[in-house]
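HOLO CASE FILE
Compound: adenosine-5'-diphosphate
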Amino acid sequence: MRSDADVVIARQRGREIASLLGFSASDLALIATAISELARNIVLYAGSGEIEIGHVEQMERRGIEIVARDQGPGIRNIPQAMRDGFSTSGGLGLGLPGVKRLMDEFEIESRPGRGTTVTVRRWTR
Ligand SMILES: Nc1ncnc2c1ncn2[C@@H]1O[C@H](COP(=O)(O)OP(=O)(O)O)[C@@H](O)[C@H]1O
Ligand SMILES: [Mg+2]
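Model generated. Tokens follow.
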């Protein structure tokens, strides 16, 4: 991820993969939205990074896993970043708390000066 064009590509790839996994049309939309949010954060705050999209199988369930990873400045205060409406850039999007609501699992790991990794999963219904 380096540019807005990469954000669009990641979003499309996510949709394709989610579709292959059997997600419903409405799920595809929200998965694409979550990917956009994570990808935009990488481009905006870290400058560059990567998005990995894969499928996960656990017991009887199947799902999609998205890992958004960068080696940017990191997030000093994660609870603050996870608060609705908090933004250091005047963002009006769903943001990280919105991504958390859209997904079934959400994990964020960040070290100031080292980077940020956000891992999210959603299971097929
Ligand atoms: N990958 C990242 N690297 C560094 N800081 C980040 C990253 N993602 C989010 N942040 C920080 O967390 C805040 C909240 O992010 P987010 O909820 O997406 O809101 P927004 O992007 O609209 O500001 C951002 O304003 C930014 O300060
Ligand atoms: Mg954001």
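CASE NOTES: Residues 37 and 95 are 6 Å apart (CA to CA). The longest strand covers residues 49-58.
CLOSED: yes
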